[in-house]
Amino acid sequence: MRKLKIVCLMLLLLAHKVSAESSHIQIHGNTMGTTYSLTLDTADISLSELELQIAVEQELNKVNNGLSIFRAESEISKLNLNHGRQAIEISQQLWDVLAISKQVSQQTEGALDITLEPVIEFWGFGVKARDLKGKNRGQLEYARSKTGMDGYVLDNGMIVKVIPDLAINPSAVAKGYGVDRVANVLDDLGIANYLVEIGGELRAKGVAADGHFWNIAILRPEKFSMQIQEVVSLNNMAIATSGSYVNYLESGESQLSHIINPNTGMPVNNSVVSATVLHKQCAVADAFATALMVLDVERSLQIADSLGLAVMLIEQTDKGSVTHFSRGIFRYLPNKEP
Question: Which segments of the protein form a coiled coil according to its record (predicted)?
Answer without folding.
Answer: none
